Amino acid sequence: MINKIFFFYFSAVIVAMSLMAITRRNVMHGVLYMLLLFFHIAGLYLFLNAEFISAVQVIVYAGAIMVLFLFVIMLLNLREDILKKQFIGTWPMGLVASAGILMVLLLSMLTVKTGEKGFWGIAQIESVTQTVAIGTTLYTQYLFPFEVASLVLLVAIIGAIVLAKKRLK
Amino acid sequence: MTPDVLKFMETARYGIPQELWTILVIIVKIAVVLGAVMLHVAYATYFERKVIGRMQNRLGPMVVGPYGILQPIADGIKSFFKEDIIPSNADKPMFFMAPVLGLMAALSSLAVVPFFNGFVIANINIGLLFLFAMSSLAVYGVILGGWSSNSKYSFLGSLRASAQVISYEVPLGLSLVGVMIMAGSLNITEIVNAQSRYPGGMYIIAQWLGFFVFVISAIAETNRSPFDLPEAETELIAGFFTEYSGMRFALFFMAEYAGMIIMCSIAVLCFLGGWTIPPFVLKLLPFLAVVPGVVWFVMKLYVCIFFYYWIRATLPRYRYDQLMAIGWKVLIPLALVNIVITAIMKLLVHAK
Predict the structure, then answer these.
(1) N or C: which end of chain A has fewer CB atoms below 10 A?
(2) Are residues A73 and A137 located together in one domain of the fold?
(3) Do A61 and A4 sit in the same domain of this protein?
(4) Same domain, yes or no, for A75 and A142?
(5) How far is C-alpha A12 from the chain's CA centre?
């Protein structure tokens, strides 16, 4: 019962906050609603016994990525942008695309099947803490995908440096 | 003394149901911790003015009370009754929210800081990560305060703050990874207990490189001199809180000092052994065992806070490009080297 109340609270606030974030005229306010959204996602992770992911959610998204967003937004000339009637002209296209994605997701939800329970059940995770569980799985079983992901990020970093550097020799 | 208090909290219930008693104990703990820390915040300002005064061959505050001992209380009353000025073009909700957000982030970190064995509000498995999360949220107070004031000086201060805090969060986190590897846990109580099992008694002996990186990035993360560019008074008046006055200014002030105390307690808990003293010292001087753990913790904390003031009185402010160069080109590589060395050492010790 209490689980359902918590889940309902978190999911309702997440939906409400994402709507608020995209409808604010002031981008700064939109970003702050997104911050609240990230906190509720972290709460949802905590609710799923995933304490490590919930902490990382706050550190990475709220602590680093949103601060970078704020940094960029502060450099924009907001006070004049707010006076504009509309920011982008092609929003009906976006609406169609996102409605399509929503339909696909809803249809896939009808046929979703949960797989077999794996090794890491809740009791198993609680006995070693979730940080240890994630660490061991990521660095043994999923080492190769993990390394591929880090390589992709490395490529992105090098790309950013190449773009930012004014002249390469 | 301390185990008796803990046992009392566990057992004596006066017929109150268990759940209610647990909640009551938590509320009492929060009140005790908040009271103690706010008192320390108030007297940290007094201590700072005295220490820096002495270092500059002055007396520091001397007027209010004997040796100026009542100065923080007088300052508090003064800022409480001052006029609260709000710039007419400010973004008002955010202007009101910013100082509260900063102080909230600093004070919520206290929830996972153990002051002596077993005395912690929330003994969670991801204590250290929680501290990182809260220290990275503290910057929102600075950024939003500077942006919502709608003033050039505040704006420049908050721009500097956001870049500085993002840059120094990385070495701050990486410098503690060595401690995590050695202790094998993120729970702060566990880390302190692991240190008392370690022959040296303090991780600073093995993690001196990590400690060096941690100290510098902690000073930068709390925007203290010599990295106080966001509030550089010689160029930006007061940086991000130029437009704040009265109690709202005092909230920023309190957040800064509370953040300093949190950083010092992380240093004490992760590198200096927390409430324990090294076993070889205890073997040499066995009578020290009667001193309660909280005394050691507080003494180490005061030394760290004194260190902050010492640096502030000694070093001039860095230039902005120097600040970025130190963070990205010196501290992050050093922290990574420290992680690699620690991991190899741990592997060798385990292989034996």
Answers:
(1) C
(2) no
(3) yes
(4) no
(5) 17
C-alpha A168 chain-centroid distance: 34
Q: Are B281 and B288 in contact (CB under 8 A)?
A: yes
Helices B127-148, B152-183: crossing angle, 10 deg rounding: 180
Task: Say yes or no: A12 and A60 in one domain.
Answer: yes
What CATH number does the domain containing A44 carry?
1.20.120.1200
**One-letter identity of residue A63:** G
Q: What's the whole-model pTM score?
A: 0.84
Contacts of A74 in chain B (CB under 8 A): 143, 147, 155, 158-159, 162
- Domain limits at A41? 1-84
Residues in B closer than 8 angstroms to A77, CB to CB, are none
CB contact under 8 A, B169 and A63: yes
Q: Find the CB nearest A67 among B91, B133, B165.
A: B165
Residue position matching structure tokens 């707010």: A82
**Interface contact flag, B139 A67, Cβ < 8 Å:** yes
Statement to judge: residues A1 and A65 lie in one domain: yes
What residues of B are in the A interface, CB distance below 8 Å? 91, 94, 124-126, 129-130, 132-133, 136-137, 139-140, 143-144, 147, 155, 158-159, 162-163, 165-166, 169, 173, 185-186
Q: Give how many domains chain A has, as a whole number.
A: 2
One domain, residues A80 and A5:
yes
ipTM confidence score:
0.78
